[in-house]
Amino acid sequence: MNSENNRKLKINILRYDPNDKNDQPHIDTFEVEEAPGMTLYVALNDIREHHDASLKFDFVCRAGICGSCSMIINGRPGLACRTLTSKMDSEISLAPLPLFELIGDLSVFTGKWMRGMNERLETWIHDEEQKLDINRLEVKMEPETAEEIYELDRCIECGCCVAGCGTIQMREDFVGAVGLNKIARYQIDPRDKRSDKDYYELVGDENGVFGCMTLLGCEDVCPKDLPLQSKIAYLRRKMVAIGK
Amino acid sequence: MKIIYTDVLVIGGGLAGLRTATGVKERGHDVIVLTLVPPKRSHSAAAQGGMQASLGNSVMGEGDNEDVHFEDTVKGSDWGADQQVVRMFVNTAPKAIRELAAWGVPWSRVKKGGRKAIMNAKSVTITEKEEAHGLITARDFGGTKKWRTCYTSDGTGHSMLYAMDNKAHEKDIEVHERLEAIALIHENNRCYGAVARNLMSGELVAYIAKATTIATGGYGRLYSVTTNAVICQGMGQAIALETGVATLGNMEAVQFHPTAIVPVGILTTEGCRGDGGVLLDVDGYRFMPDYEPEKRELASRDVVSRRMTEHMRKGKGVPSRYGDHLWLDITILGREHIEKNLREVKEICENFLGIDPAEEWIPVRPTQHYSMGGIRTKYTGESQTLNGLYSCGEAACWDMHGFNRLGGNSVSETVVSGMLVAEYISDFCDNDESTIDINTSVIESFVNDQQCRLDRFINNKNGEDAYELRRAMEKIMMDKVGIFRNGKDLKEAVEELEKLLFRSHNIEVFRSKSLAANPALVNAYRTQRMIKVALTVAYGALLRTESRGAHAREDYPERNDKEWLNRTIMRWEDPDDTMPSVSYEAIKIDTMEMPPGFRGYGKDNTIAHPESAIRQQQVNQIRAEVEEEGLDRFEVQRALMHYEELLPEKYRGKNERLSERFNDE
After folding, report:
1. pLDDT of residue B489
2. Dihedrals φ, ψ of A47, to 5°?
3. To the nearest whole number, what is the mean pLDDT of chain A?
4. What's residue B217's pLDDT?
5. Contact by Cβ (8 Å): B142, B255
6. What's the pLDDT band for A131 if we cut at 50, 70, 90?
7. pLDDT on residue A1
8. Which of A169, B200, B325, B495 has a CA positioned 20 to 30 A from the CA of residue B38?
9. Tell me, what's the ipTM?
10. By the CB < 8 Å criterion, does A193 face chain B?
11. Maximum CA pair distance of chain B?
12. Any CB–CB contact under 8 A between A122 and chain B?
């Protein structure tokens, strides 16, 4: 391979180690030789292995499936693992996802935030009457209904929509598009016996569906292309009907 | 010193770990789950194609039941599996999927009437029955007689894991995130929990429990190219090994998946071929029917991976800057099908290859994918040698996969083993013998020992670079302990790994000296443990002079039942040892429901065990006698091999099917 033709990438990373009392937020710049098919996953590991072993970031599946590696890439939230450097200028800037607790450098504690949101919205099937006999045939479901639920179930809790949200900058308890999408998902699921009134208790206020300013940054940055705009609008219509 | 007490400690927050946790909590036991990452980011989420359960709802699955699933699984294992465990599994899988359906997984459903499908590269029409409409459907997968793999598009693991984690929220399961178990605490052959390191603050915490469960998945990252997530580093196996008491089983049994994309090794599901996709060579020629005329692209995974490698060795691979590869063609399935049932595959192709798989062929090659080996346990999930230590899912070898796992049987196993092992653990915890009886000074010595190890990595001078050692290890495993193996390469691999292990004692953490969140320190201690685990794989492969399932020796191409119908058992007796010690556990033929036979691929070159024919004769005779009495299939099975009494009582029931309806009382 002729390495002379490879670009030299300049990667600027916003860094801070909260465990180090002497540290201040600052930008470090690293030079990395681009390789064919290089993603930010490859580039960041290259930096850690060859330039700075203390650089903190999170990858798990490195295939765009698990949602661990969301960060601000050239000013926009996205999944680093599936970002090809070939599609970018040779100077790249990276920063941790805002609003989440910082662990260090590009690593943030999205898990804690997501767990809080899930517990608050009780994102599980509610069925008080259910007497499940797992030996018996499963309850039937229309094939189209299953597909519609799966469409919304594809959310990977990466936090990009939260980072891209205008409302949450002003209301820190806003549940975000991720939370509203979950309610929309359970609302169409016949197995969840909660009524619209129950959902209203959860998201019928300004920290829920009425807080959304419809700036739609969430849908712009969602790596799974979830129909967040139409689902928030749908949910709002339902909740308005209840609130009347 | 910080000590946290609980009844059950679960290490690993994937499907197996979470199902174990919800199960023991249901039985009234306190539980804490330790996980490296938020549970929803576990590698379980990456399972794409589906979960095997013999529901038989789709017309293509008609006639399916536990017996057929059992037969497929045992054949797939190349007779390495524990047949009682397989029986326990196949009987519980339908229950597991129905439970998950109630917990929220949006399983794809049967739609009545005709639909187009691709089979053997031809378009056919499949007509589903009215009465099956709305029940859970299934797709075809390799090595199965029936269409048995249930799915949600190609995001099955994701949907299962989300439903499971949501259930854990509902049940208020305590999860401690970003905590890594780095040593098991044990005394007098009894496990009492683990020393865990907080990956954010660096703090060491002792978790003390009646029962400790390792559900940390496989060890794919020993190889430089793998479909596994970066956290699948075999750390669960490593900390079990380091007790010197617990044993590992069949570590050399490593599966290569036929279709990972080149070069990054990301998986494209077996569902691509199950749904009708084909493999093509450099000339665009479909070569699999030449090698396996009957099962073609849907032969068992180990078989397809070897045939692909053989074909590339004949010069029929597609040359690329990353070495040769072959093509996976799913264009024949049509855009609509791909965008509905193979959407993760489509996203992966777009993002990592820049191609549209509805228009273009996908470059693929066999890649490390699954670890059949793991912590050797009894059927209860408890270690055979260290009491109070349990393991389930991919981390364990209990042993339902033998030397090759069928596609769709792994996510199924995670949930089933979690359900079952949770019951056995609960029984143990209900019993007085599970009382925690360990002195705090012993606990402290385990914590201090780990602290010393960490300090040493930070303070070593002029030491070794852990990244360099790790890359060397990955390359050895890839080049010398891969799909085809031979004595010369394996011998070199073992010698080289032993040298790496020696060098690893002198690892120095360079330029990053923090004892808190510090990826370099993490890499240092994990690398040393990975090399130990790699040694168990390479050494087991060197000693096993036969070919069985995924373990293929070019110098010993026969499956040798006469000498090798056994499990490899590894133990690391002394921390100062440079090699594991090895013993073998015989697999008994005289109690088998299905004695060793021909798997049906290529030509039969098995060196038979003399007992196989005797047992086969017995089986035939028993079957004939019982059938003559007009007994049903359950009674026939019971006459051949016992297993029901091993199952927890609540999971012994029969499974209802459209073809086997229950009479309502």
Report:
1. 98
2. -60, -45
3. 95
4. 98
5. no
6. confident
7. 45
8. A169
9. 0.97
10. no
11. 78
12. yes
- B134 vs A191: CB contact, 8 Å cut-off? no
* Partner B contacted by A140 (CB < 8 A): yes
Instruction: Tell me which residue of A60, A82, A67, A83 sits closest to B348, measured CA to CA.
Output: A82
| Residue B659 CB partners (closer than 8 Å, separation 6+) | B56, B62, B63
**Contact call for residues B347 and A64 (beta carbons, < 8 A):** yes
Tell me if residue B592 falls in helix, strand or coil: coil
Q: Is A140 exposed, middle or buried (0-12, 13-18, 19+ CB in 10 A)?
A: middle
Q: Which of residues 538-597 of B touch A (CB under 8 A)?
A: none
* Identity of the residue in B230, B340, B656 whose CB atom sits nearest the CB atom of A59: B230
Residue B406: what pLDDT? 96
Residue B273 a catalytic site member: yes
Element (H, E) at B415: helix B409-430
Is residue B422 within 8 A of residue B24, CB to CB? The reply is yes
Of A67, A122, A154, the CB nearest to B155: A154
- Does the beta-carbon distance from A138 to B135 stay under 8 Å? yes
The torsion angles phi and psi of B551, rounded to 5 degrees, stand at: -90, 100
Please tell me the distance from the alpha carbon of residue B509 to that of residue B575, in angstroms, as a whole number.
21
Pairing mode of beta strands B204-214, B389-391? parallel
CB proximity under 8 Å: B 222-241 to A: 229-231
In the numeric block, which tokens belong to residue A7?
């670009």
CA atoms of B384 and B374, how far apart (whole Å): 13
CA–CA–CA angle B543, B547, B550 (5° rounding): 100
Write out residues 593-652 of B within 8 Å (CB-CB) of A.
none
> B128 - beta bridge partners?
B113
The answer to whether residues B219 and B470 touch, using CB atoms and an 8 Å cutoff, is no
One DSSP character per residue, B515-567 reads SSS-HHHHHHHHHHHHHHHHHHHHHHHHH--S-BTTBEETTB-S-BHHHH-EE
- Strand, helix or coil at B35? strand
Contact (CB, 8 A) for B158 and A156: yes
Q: How many CB pairs under 8 A join A and B?
A: 214
Using CA atoms, how far residue B422 sits from B295, B312, B321, B648, in Å, is 37, 45, 49, 10
pLDDT range class, residue A3, cuts 50, 70, 90: low
Separation in Å, CA of B618 to nearest CA in chain A: 32
The minimum CA-CA distance between B45 and chain A, rounded to whole Å, is: 7
Residue of B539, B37, B608, B654 lying closest to B248 (CA atoms): B539
Q: Which residue stretches of chain B have pLDDT < 70?
A: 665
pLDDT at A4 > cutoff 70: no
Give the span between the Cα atoms of A172 and A211, in whole angstroms.
11
- Which amino acid is residue B387, in one-letter code? N
Pick from B264, B512, B517: CB nearest A103: B517
CA–CA separation, B40 vs B55, rounded Å?
27
Of A221, A100, A208, A107, give the one whose Cα is nearest residue A164: A221
Cα–Cα distances in angstroms (integers) from residue B30 to residues B7, B22, B431, B562, B648, in the given order: 5, 10, 15, 47, 20
Kindly report, residue by residue over A25-54, the tens digit of the pLDDT: 999 999 999 998 899 999 999 999 999 999
- Write the residue in B102, B178, B267 that is nearest to A130 by C-beta: B102
Cβ-Cβ contacts under 8 Å, B166 against chain A: 118, 123-125
Query: Considering chain B, what is the average pLDDT of its residues?
Result: 96
CA atoms of B331 and B339, how far apart (whole Å): 12
Chain B residue nearest residue A82, CA to CA: B351
**Is B201 part of the contact surface with chain A (CB cutoff 8 Å)?**
yes
Element holding B369 (H helix, E strand): strand B362-371
Q: Is B335 on the interface with A (CB under 8 A)?
A: no
